[in-house]
Amino acid sequence: MPVQSTLQKLEILADAAKYDASCASSGTAKKNSMGGKGIGSTEGMGICHAYAPDGRCISLLKLLMTNHCIFDCHYCINRKSSNVRRARFTPQEVADLTLNFYRRNYIEGLFLSSGILKSSDFTMEQLVETARILREDHDFRGYIHLKTIPEADPGLVYQAGLLADRVSINVELPTDSGLTRLAPDKDARQIESAMGGMKSSIVEAKDSRKRFKFAPRFAPAGQSTQMIIGADTASDADIVGKASRLYDNFRLRRVYYSAFSPIPNASAILPLKRPPLIREHRLYQSDWLMRFYDYKPGEIMQATDDAGNLPLDIDPKLAWALKFREWFPVDVNRASKEQLLRVPGLGVKSVHRLLAARRHRRLRLEDVAKVAVSLFKIRPFIETCDWRPTALTDRADLRRLLVPQQEQLELFAA
Amino acid sequence: MKAVVPHSRGKLSTHYAVAMPRPDDFAFWRGQARQLIQCNVSPEYVAWTEPGGSGDLFASEGARLPEFGKNAPFVRASRQFISVAQNAALHSESGRFALIYRLLWRLQTNPRIMEDKTDPDVRYVEELAKNVRRDSHKMRAFVRFRKVNDGKGTDHYAAWFEPDHHILRANAGFFRRRFANMQWSILTPRGTLHWNGKAMHEGPPARREDAPGDDPMEDLWRKYYASIFNPARLKVGAMLSEMPKKYWKNLPEASLIPELIAGAQAREAQMVDAGKSRSGQEFENTPETLPAIESAIQTCRQCPIGNLDNHAVMGEGPLSANLMIVGEQPGDHEDTTGRPFVGPAGQLLDVHLEKAGIDRGAAYVTNAIKHFKYLPRGKRRIHQSPGAKEIDTCRWWQEAERTIVKPKLVLAMGASAARSLLGKTVSITKARGTPVPLEDGSELWITAHPSYLLRLDGEAREKQARLFDADLSAVKIRLAELSTH
Hints:
The complex is a heterodimer.
Chain A: H1 6-15, E1 50-51, E2 57-58, E3 60-64, H2 91-103, E4 109-113, H3 120-137, E5 143-147, H4 154-163, E6 166-168, H5 176-182, H6 188-211, E7 223-229, H7 236-250, E8 254-259, H8 277-292, H9 297-302, H10 316-323, E9 330-331, H11 337-341, H12 348-357, H13 365-371, E10 382-383, H14 398-402, H15 406-412
Parallel strand pairs in A: 3-4, 4-5, 5-6, 6-7, 7-8, 9-10
Antiparallel strand pairs in A: 1-2
Helix pairs in contact in A: 2-3, 3-4, 4-6, 7-8
Chain B: E1 16-19, H1 26-38, E2 46-49, H2 79-88, H3 96-109, H4 120-142, E3 146-149, E4 155-160, H5 172-178, E5 183-188, E6 191-195, E7 200-203, H6 217-228, H7 236-242, H8 257-275, H9 278-284, H10 290-298, E8 323-327, H11 332-337, H12 344-356, E9 364-367, E10 374-377, E11 380-383, H13 388-405, E12 409-413, H14 415-422, H15 428-431, E13 436-437, E14 443-447, H16 450-454, H17 458-484
Parallel strand pairs in B: 1-2, 4-5, 8-9, 8-12, 12-14
Antiparallel strand pairs in B: 3-4, 5-6, 6-7, 10-11, 13-14
């Protein structure tokens, strides 16, 4: 085999990493390079250094250590039976690339994952070694996200947490049956027990830092996971349920959804048609509702249809509001924060602004228009001192009026 | 301590001019503003000028303010005001100092004014602050250093950046904390920063030519940028809103964007093709039932339309229908609902069918193209007419449907449908009203597409509607004749 240049390896191993949805670099401990020997800082908010035409932020150097793999997961481009070009970086090469990119302000840090080469332990050692070179040899204080391998030795996984800002273990599929069918080499119980172990290490480290100033940090940006949407038959209700269990049981920072996209050499048992990206979007919206709007998973499930799926044409918040009309209209001048957060079209920021503004005056519809993005969706669900939706809230065809496509009809009807 | 309550301005009608030494000197503004408030100078009597800006004519020889000693009146400024004003002061808008002074003035009588997010001044100052924060954020994101070899063995990194506002000095700390042990310079048209690993120096405005022209590492970065992009999910609007084109000229990776977008569909088609051979086989055997067609069109990638983010829409109607209505392609509405002719054009069609006495429920309604072809425009998907090649490719499915349903009369609406059935392009005006015999013994009638009526107005629309109705009535009569045979 001809020797591959760094450029060729980068092409193959970055290409192979693009199916990971996460690129977050926020929410870690504050640190900077003042008084150190190297470079790097993390100051709370992550920075997106570029955007690709797929609309996704490029914040980290997202790489696979290698795309050789001894596993045969059907949804994965790098599975053993797939006929793709293979490449492999050494830990030193990845560290050099990270530093060279970081010095030029291209990235916030490194997100390193890997196919399983030789054994889980061997692969995990390589990942940990890369982070060690960066942190210890170069005093790198930027962001590091390591994807850990659930089958690897817990001692190695612990090492990863000591070096990285964030660690993640992918649950891969929303249902255990899906995992058994599509990822025959993986075991749902093993994945969850690794996540559980990670959680207790994080909690323990946080606790000891409260008591001992110099106790080591352990994954200060927490752990996250990723689920592939549309490769199996799981409904949105299954997915939301699984996500909320994961948030509760393992205190995850984020659950990422990745719409299954057509991959070269896809296995024959997968659907060829990808699920619409809009489905992924709706799932993220429901994730937001649970995390910032105080919706319970059960309430999200109430917004799904008979097959357990969220409507694609309207967002889950609107779907919920249409089903539970008795909650509305909400009086903007009197309602509690929780009630206002349920109004479709009002975000957390807008609600806070309304709460602040109503201390100064009685709010009129135009005041709501000033703080919200658009009144269109909001109007049927609120009351102000000059607006009352009367029968609008309870109209049977309200849904039809609010579906975005309906606007086009009005444009055409001259 | 007591706040100064502005009283009648009669005595103090003198105008004051404050010359800012630097366009981003908030501390100076703060000192001057405090003094002006203490002297009870109403905002309309103060003119703020910055270096290079044009002065206020009648205020250029403004009076000097008296200094207060120990008994200076208390000036109120909420923490919220300071944090917003600090950012707004860096904006390139020339009225910014007057605006924040006006707010400070109003703050003396209404201490909670910053909470009133519906007040025009508050909204404007927050807008300015937001622009500055965004510009700062983009600077931290989009500064691209290039390595310069000075020949002495130490590496120096230099970047060229063009901020919209006076944010350079405010962001010096960020870059110092991040690159503390590196030697770097940031050059901008408003000034320069140099860090030698120990101290920061400021320099005069620079030109683009002063910055290094290239860095070999950018080849690797561009390769990374092109590889991490997933062509199966093209969202150009999302990219443009976060990385507007004005920044592109200083981003090494941005030169790749046009070709990445152009190549995305082809690359995705390749990905799909490489992964499948089974759909190709299905294509060789005509499906024999409508459900088989329905499942086969879902995975059809024979033309680029199938690779967009859309769903195939199957025809619907009774298996034994005498009438088959063929339209162009599903629209946005049909794509979401999965049913043909339910959008605006479909609703108009229903009206006219009812007028002509044709029962839509008894007809088999389908489209020449099974997938929705569109261009994304923000959140909208704008309809695109299918090309001749695409119509000819998709003809396969329409013919399969026709073989199963075996209609006696086929009504093609619009040029695309006509091409699908005839295999050649015809003019609707010439072809309408005359039946064309098809190979399987059925009759083809051609008329306009109802969406054509939707695009017309007034008299033209009425005229076309009459023609459309006439075509439908003719079809109704002919259909009755054929059915009795």
